[in-house]
Inverse folding.
């Protein structure tokens, strides 16, 4: 099965390479029709997540967000495969980091940094292109896919412009190895943690929500400045990323402070543009133990 999936991914990446963008979005519109109208892909999960996150919205408003989510999700799927064969010229035109110079001072001071991103709009193109925009050597911290062949396939393409990928389990080793160079460690930090016992629990989108404790722990131990990446869709197929400083000296913060700051900042991003977050995952399937507290 894994080998078959690998062949499908390889075939899609080859075909999508030659699709002009107008054709790509016709395909996305058809995919939207299939996912929303025919298959109702994870419809209950998506609608329930939105209902709990926005209890003040009407049924009609929630339905509008559900439809908008499917359109965003369809675009991301086709753009992901298009991105595997996209040219550097095209990605630089379509995916721009508009204030990357904010991080230049850290680079000039040989200062490593931490960047926290999320699954908002097209994060895959961010992975592809971030190393083209930053002076720092970018190290993407990622959670490996269960399908090893698919994991290898996507990682090979994601690293085509010298991005370095490191699995979560090897983060500490990478930090030690690169401690003398100005690297930027990127975490997509809104995933559900598997280690619930050590998770940080935060009130997020009107719900008790578990966040990975690792990026908070690393930030406090290294004292590397922490930045937030905010991705916005300018128009279909065009994106802008804006960086903002989340914490200059995390070494002076208490445990979970960085997590709380990230959660609050992400919540504001989602509230401004709710349809474009990844609502199709069971983000709130894990529950906290009674002894744990929620901040």
């Amino acid at each position: 099965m894994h080998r078959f999936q690998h062949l499908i991914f390889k075939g899609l990446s080859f075909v999508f390479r030659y699709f002009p963008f107008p054709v790509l979005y016709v395909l996305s519109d058809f995919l939207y029709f299939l996912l929303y109208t025919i298959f109702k892909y994870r419809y209950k999960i998506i609608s329930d997540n939105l209902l709990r996150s926005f209890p003040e919205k009407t049924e009609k408003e929630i339905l509008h967000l559900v439809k908008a989510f499917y359109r965003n999700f369809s675009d991301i799927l086709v753009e992901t495969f298009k991105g595997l064969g996209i040219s550097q010229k095209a990605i630089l035109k379509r995916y721009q980091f508009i204030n990357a110079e904010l991080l230049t001072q850290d680079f000039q001071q040989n200062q490593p940094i931490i960047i926290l991103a999320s699954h908002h709009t097209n994060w895959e193109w961010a992975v592809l292109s971030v190393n083209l925009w930053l002076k720092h050597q970018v190290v993407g911290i990622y959670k490996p896919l269960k399908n090893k062949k698919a994991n290898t396939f996507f990682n090979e393409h994601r690293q085509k412009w010298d991005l370095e990928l490191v699995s979560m389990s090897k983060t500490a080793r990478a930090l030690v190895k690169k401690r003398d160079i100005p690297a930027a460690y990127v975490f997509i930090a809104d995933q559900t943690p598997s280690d619930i016992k050590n998770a940080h629990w935060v009130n997020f989108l009107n719900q008790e929500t578990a966040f990975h404790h690792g990026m908070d722990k690393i930030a406090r131990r290294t004292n590397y400045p922490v930045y937030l990446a905010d991705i916005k869709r300018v128009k279909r197929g065009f994106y802008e990323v804006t960086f903002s400083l989340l914490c200059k000296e995390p070494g002076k913060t208490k445990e979970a402070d960085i997590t709380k700051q990230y959660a609050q900042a992400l919540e504001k991003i989602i509230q401004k543009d709710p349809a474009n977050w990844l609502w199709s995952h069971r983000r709130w399937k894990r529950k906290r133990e009674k002894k744990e507290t929620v901040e």
